[in-house]
Amino acid sequence: MKTKHKKENSYPFHLDDDLVQNSYRQHENNPVQILLNLYRGNYKKLMLSTLCYIVKHSPVWALPIVTANIVNYVTNPPENVHQLLLTNMILIVALILINIPANYLHTRFKSLATRSVEASLRSTLVRKIQQLSISFHKEMESGRIQSKIMRDVEAVETLSSQMFISLLNILINIVVALSVTVAKSRVVFFFFLLTIPVAALTIFVFKRPMKKHNRKFRKEIETTSAKVMEMVEMIPITRAHALEQKESSRMSQQLIEVAAEGYRLDVIQSTFGSVSWAVFQIFQVICLIFTANLALNHKIPAGDIVLYQSYFATIVNQVSAVITLLPTITRGMESVSSIGEILNDNDIEDNRGKTKLSSLRGEYRLDDIHFQYAKDQKAILDGITLDVHAGETIAFVGESGAGKSTLINIIIGFLMPNKGTLYIDGIDSRKLNLPSYRKNIAVVPQTTVLFSGSIRDNITYGLEHFTEDDVQKAVRAANLEDVIQKLPNGLDTMVGSHGDKLSGGQKQRISIARALIRNPEVIIFDEATSALDSFSEKQIQGALANLSKGKTTFLVAHRLSTIRTADKIVVLRNGKCVEYGTWDELIAKKGIFYQMHSLQA
C-alpha cells in the first residue's frame, strides 16, 4: 500500500510503506540486506548519482597525470612543448568547469533516493505505531518512540549516503588510482596493495568495541528522551510541590550518564581514527622514498614521483575514509536494528478478512470474561458475565483497581479477553473488524487528550462531513456555551499544547463535545465528569440523559450521583461482579454499593 499525501505532485518523492515493512519482515536479522531492500525502486537514481560523481570527480584523477606531464615536459622538453602545455591546461580547466553541473545532478539524484527512503521509514513507523496494541504503548515510553522516528531514521539516512554514495565513490577512487598505477608500473602497484591487509586488521581490532558502545549510547539517548518528555509533562506537579531542585538533579544524573557513554564512544572512535591515520601517513612517507629510489635508478621519470605520490595519497585517503566511516556505519546499522524493534513487533490489531459493521444496534454479551496482563500474576478480570440490551445504560463502579477501565478497554476492543468471549451484536469481537465497529461508538476517556489546535479543531477531530449547526449542538450539549463566549476568538481559540490554556473542566467538556458531535450508537464515558464542578456536572447529566436515549451507554463512575438513572449498575471488586441491579435494588440490598453510597452521602 503506497501512502499518498495531498502535496504528492509538488515534490518528486513517493512513500512506500509496504516495501519498508516487507524489508524488515524478510530480512529481520540482516541490517545490510534490509538497507539494500529499502532502496528498491531507487537503484536507477543511485546509478545516475554515481555516474555524475565520476564526471564531477574526474579533475581529481586527471590533475596528477597533468602535473606529471608538465614536470616531465619541463625536465625533458619536446619540440611542441608549448602546445602540449596548452592542451593539458585546457583539458584540466574543462574538467573543472564540468564539475559544477555534474555535482548538482549527483546531489539531486542521491538526495531524491535517500530522502524518499527516509520519509518512507518514518511513514511506516507512524503507521505501525497506530496499529500496535494499547498494551505495547503502555510498555514503550513515547520518548523512545520519538527517538526512533527522528534520531534513528536520520542515522539510517546518513548510513544510506555513506554506503551507497561514499563507499561506492571510495571504491571508484581506489580503482582509478590502481588502474593508472598498474598501467604505469607494476612494482609500484604491488606496493600500493600492501595497504589492504593493514586496513583490514585495523577495522577488525576496532569494530566490535565500537558496535558495543554505539548500542549503549543509543539506549541511553532513548532513555533520556523518554525522561525529558516525562519531566516536561510533570512540571506543574513539580512546581506545586517545590521539587524543582530534586527533578533537576534527577535529570542531571541521567544527562551525566549519557555524557559518560558518549565520552566512551568518542574516545574509542577517536583512537580508531588516529591509529589508522598514523599508519597510513607512515605508508605515504615510505611511498615517497620508494618512488624516489625508482626515479634515481631511472626506472620511472622524475615527474611520475608526483603522480604516484598523488595516487597513493588518494588510496590512503580513501582507505582512511572507509575506516573513518566505520563509526557512522556502525551507528547506522544499530539504528536499522532499533527501528526493527517496532516494525517487527507482532503485537498488532489484525483486522484483515474480519466482519465489517456498517451500523451498530448496541447489543453486548460478556460471556465469562477473564483478563490478565502478560507480566502480571494477578487476574484483572475474573469471570465477568453480562447481557446488555440495545439502548440500555450500564454503569460500572468499584474501588481503584477493581477492573473498571480494563472492562471498558475490552468493550472498546483495545484489549481481547484471555478467556471468554465478548459478543457485539451477536458477533465474537475477535472476528470483528474493529475500526468499522469503533466508527459507530464515541469514547470520552478519563484523561482528556487535546492537541494544539483550536477548540473547533478538537471537537471535530477526524470528521470529514459536519455543519456549523452540528458543532453548536455539541457545544450546547457539553455546556460549553459560556466558556466559548468568554474566549477572544470563540471556537477558533487555540487551546495550547495539550490544552494547557484551559482548565481541567473545560478540557473535559471539549472531550465530551467531541464524542457527542459524532452522534454515535454507543457512548462510553470513563469517569468523564470527574473534573467538573457540581453545577456543570448536573447540566451535562441532563444533556447526556437526552442524548443517550435509545443508545447503549457505558458509564464508569467515581461519583455515584452521576449514575442514578442507569438501567443497571455493575459493582466490581477484585475483578469480579459482586453486585448487579438498579439503583433502588442495590440500595435496598444494603450491601457493598450501599456502603459506597453512604461514604459519599
UniProtKB/TrEMBL annotation:
Subcellular location: Cell membrane
Domain called ABC transporter: residue spans: 364-599
Domain of life per record: Bacteria
Name of the featured protein: ABC transporter ATP-binding protein
Cellular component terms (Gene Ontology): plasma membrane
Domain ABC transmembrane type-1: 62-331
TM spans (from-to): 46-65, 85-105, 164-182, 188-206, 274-296, 308-329
Keyword terms: ATP-binding, Membrane, Nucleotide-binding, Transmembrane, Transmembrane helix
Keyword Transferase attached: no
Keyword set includes Membrane: yes
Membrane topology (UniProt): Multi-pass membrane protein
Coiled coil location: none
Species name: Blautia liquoris
InterPro entries for the chain: AAA+_ATPase (IPR003593), ABC1_TM_dom (IPR011527), ABC1_TM_sf (IPR036640), ABC_transporter-like_ATP-bd (IPR003439), ABC_transporter-like_CS (IPR017871), P-loop_NTPase (IPR027417), Type_1_exporter (IPR039421)
UniProt-recorded Gene Ontology molecular function terms: ABC-type oligopeptide transporter activity; ATP binding; ATP hydrolysis activity
